[in-house]
């Protein structure tokens, strides 16, 4: 287990002339965890989030960052705010500068980076969120999703260890929210601790490592999502709803079906539950292959050539840059979110698939497929694209 | 209400990539020449060239340009009418004695003066339109900083620039909400709704001011606003065009001398 990065010990906070917003909360967050703070409106989620980077000082109790109590003098707060990045719910409230470039450069400038460094961090942050070429655009001309990305890039440019998001998907369309959630996954994969607040249960359930249910300024329940959302009583008290898959699982159990393994968090898990139930593991005798293409390093020509040879292969893209790459080379995408799971589902049906992704997420694919293999005993082959294309080149060489 | 803002047109205009100073020099130089000229011809020449540049080089929509031009033109027409009737002269064309000691007259001098003022207005307007439709504020900030305008002033300008659009959005939303509930159906309602709109906008801007400080704090603000991107280099052909325009306009100013209409 990794070490604790954020900790709260019995913190309380009352708004001036208002009600108590946070009444005695204690919890801890470990490095590289994905935490979802879930609760109804007015549960104190936002207030609690604001304490993570010292925007609000608790009336009593102790906040610890990296095992040291948070100090509230200006220099210490600067250090804390560099390490804990905060993305507000409304990007219009977060974007300060008249152009995208200036806004993303705001943090680095105030951290006194020199000019080439600023340019580099801004370019990197914009590239990360997929907004290259937007440098000179004024924010009021961007769409909601793009504004959100600018806000995230502005925080990423400061290279924080912990990222706090207040309602990251509010006001976005479903595909926009999926994109943002995927971006959060990518960031987490690179070692950042991510904390989000939301009241969207379906969103938090498959994503989070741990869920914290809040109600009336108190923690109602804190556990892995299957357990936290698995108790209808506490979910009802928190004015939330049980995630659809979990409810389905519970209903099946109530009807006397003996479901094996852990509770399902994704459609893939659910399919496995159902298939073991009917003792029909895998619908096809032969599993399909998953090919992984790293858009950062793999040869673009090879990819197109390979795609033209493979008829009927499903293509999914993971990460903003991969999606942009696909769009630029006019590759039609079958999946744009939950890509790995959907490709595993395809493989179980005996169909091949291709995943376009970026450097940091390549490992994630094999990890997820291996984890599935261990659970189910079904081995699905995963191969990098360059090895496949090289093999075909070699074959051609032999023939000639 | 506010369908398309000037700033949005400027961000997309055909001359966006031309060096900011060139555009500013062309525009400001044109205004200066309009003021220096003693004849009505040079301002008309400048107006024709700059309107052509705005319409064909910057590819601004003719309708938008005409709408932009007509509003101030009304003011010009009214003031010029005043000038023509009040300015005195020797060569009287028409006279009306309203009162024993007060009469309105149209003279050769007054007509010349009126036409001269009117042409100057058109020339200056077209130069201002040229600047505002081809040079976005964001580029002007860069130029201002390079001209050593105090940082605090520019920072304030940038924050104001950013918040104007947010405030504008909110005002539009409130306005629509009022229209939907028949807030502007009569004179009384209009006055009342407009007052509420102003109040709500004030509170909203106060709120966003608080939020702005919080957002800046959260990103380690210590008095520095981000550096601006660099401006584009002066290219040969655009540079030559501006020089040619200013030289030819100056020539027109000199050659036209004191030529008057009648």
Question: What would your notes on this structure say?
Answer:
The complex is a heterodimer of chains A (400) and B (262). Chain A is 44% helix and 20% strand. Chain A has helices at residues 45-52, 74-83, 91-94, 100-110, 115-128, 144-156, 174-189, 201-207, 225-228, 232-237, 244-254, 267-277, 300-309, 320-328, 339-348, 359-376, 385-399; strands at 4-14, 20-30, 34-38, 60-65, 68-69, 84-87, 162-166, 193-198, 210-215, 218-223, 290-294, 314-317, 353-357, 382-384. In chain A, strand 4 (60-65) and strand 5 form a beta hairpin. In chain A, helix 4 packs across helix 5 (115-128) and helix 5 packs across helix 6 (144-156). The longest helix of chain A has 18 residues, at 359-376. Chain A starts with a strand and ends with a helix. Helices cover 71% and strands 5% of the residues of chain B. Chain B has 9 helices and 2 strands, in the order ααααββααααα. Chain B has helices at residues 6-12, 20-36, 41-57, 62-86, 108-134, 137-146, 151-180, 187-218, 236-256; strands at residues 92-99, 102-107. The longest helix of chain B is centred in the last third of the chain and has 32 residues, at 187-218. Chain B starts with 5 loop residues before the first helix and ends in a 6-residue tail after the last helix. The mean pLDDT of chain B is 86. The chains are: A alpha/beta (400), B mainly alpha (262). Chain A binds chain B through residues 53, 55, 78, 81-82, 86, 88, 92-99, 101-112, 115, 118, 135-141, 154-155, 158, and chain B through 7-8, 11, 136-138, 141, 158-159, 161-162, 165-166, 169, 208, 211-212, 214-229.
């Amino acid at each position: 287990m990794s070490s604790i990065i954020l900790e709260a010990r019995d913190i309380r906070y009352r708004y001036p002339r208002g009600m108590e917003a946070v009444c005695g909360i204690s919890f801890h967050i470990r490095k590289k965890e994905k935490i979802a703070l879930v609760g109804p409106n007015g549960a104190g989620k936002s207030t609690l989030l604001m304490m993570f980077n010292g925007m609000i000082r608790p009336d009593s109790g102790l906040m610890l960052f990296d095992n040291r109590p948070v100090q509230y003098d200006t220099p210490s707060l600067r250090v804390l705010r560099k390490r804990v990045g905060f993305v507000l719910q409304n990007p219009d409230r977060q974007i300060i500068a008249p152009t995208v470039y200036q806004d993303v450069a705001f943090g680095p400038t105030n951290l006194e980076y020199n000019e080439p460094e600023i340019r580099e961090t801004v370019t990197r942050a914009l590239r990360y969120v997929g907004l290259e070429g937007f440098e000179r655009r004024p924010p009021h001309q961007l769409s909601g999703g793009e504004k959100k990305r600018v806000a995230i890039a502005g925080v990423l440019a400061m290279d924080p260890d912990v990222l706090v998001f207040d309602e990251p998907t509010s006001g976005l369309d479903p595909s926009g929210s999926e994109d943002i959630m995927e971006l959060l996954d990518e960031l987490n994969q690179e070692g950042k601790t991510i904390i989000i607040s939301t009241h969207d249960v379906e969103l938090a359930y498959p994503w989070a490592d741990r869920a914290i249910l809040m109600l009336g300024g108190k923690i109602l329940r804190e556990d892995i999502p299957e357990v936290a959302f698995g108790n209808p009583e506490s979910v009802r008290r928190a004015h939330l709803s049980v995630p659809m898959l979990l409810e389905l699982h519970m209903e099946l159990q109530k009807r006397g079906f003996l479901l094996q393994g852990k509770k399902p968090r994704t459609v893939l898990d659910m399919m496995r539950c159902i298939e073991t139930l009917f003792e029909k593991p895998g619908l096809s005798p032969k599993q399909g292959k998953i090919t992984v293409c790293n858009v950062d390093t793999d040869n673009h020509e090879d990819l197109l050539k390979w795609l033209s040879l493979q008829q009927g292969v499903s293509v999914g893209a993971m990460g903003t840059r991969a999606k942009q790459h696909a769009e630029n080379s006019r590759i039609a995408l079958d999946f744009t979110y939950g890509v790995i799971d959907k490709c595993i589902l395809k493989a179980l049906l005996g169909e091949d698939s291709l995943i376009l992704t970026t450097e940091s997420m390549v490992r994630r694919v094999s990890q997820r497929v291996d984890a599935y293999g261990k659970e189910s005993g079904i081995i699905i082959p995963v191969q990098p694209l360059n090895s496949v294309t090289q093999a075909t080149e070699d074959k051609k060489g032999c023939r000639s | 209400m506010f369908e398309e803002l000037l700033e949005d047109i400027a961000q997309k205009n055909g001359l966006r990539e031309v060096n900011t100073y060139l555009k500013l020099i062309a525009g400001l130089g044109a205004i200066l020449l309009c003021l220096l000229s003693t004849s009505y011809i040079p301002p008309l020449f400048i107006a024709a060239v700059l309107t052509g540049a705005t319409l064909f080089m910057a590819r601004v929509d003719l309708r938008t340009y005409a709408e932009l031009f007509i509003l101030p033109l009304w003011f010009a027409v009214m003031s010029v009418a005043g000038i023509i009737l009040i300015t005195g002269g020797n060569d009287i064309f028409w006279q009306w004695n309203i009162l024993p000691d007060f009469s309105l007259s149209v003279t050769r001098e007054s007509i010349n003066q009126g036409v001269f003022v009117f042409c100057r207005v058109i020339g200056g307007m077209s130069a201002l339109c040229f600047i505002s439709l081809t040079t976005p504020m964001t580029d002007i900030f860069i130029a201002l900083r390079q001209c050593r305008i105090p940082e605090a002033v520019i920072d304030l300008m940038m924050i104001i620039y950013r918040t104007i659009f947010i405030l504008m959005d909110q005002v539009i939303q409130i306005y629509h909400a009022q229209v939907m509930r028949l807030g502007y159906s009569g004179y009384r309602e209009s006055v009342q709704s407009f007052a509420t709109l102003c109040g709500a906008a004030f509170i909203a801007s106060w709120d966003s001011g608080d939020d702005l400080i919080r957002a800046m704090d959260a990103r380690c603000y210590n008095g520095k606003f981000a550096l601006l991107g660099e401006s584009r280099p002066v290219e040969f052909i655009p540079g030559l065009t501006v020089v040619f325009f200013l030289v030819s306009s100056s020539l027109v100013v000199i050659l036209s001398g004191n030529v008057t209409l009648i």
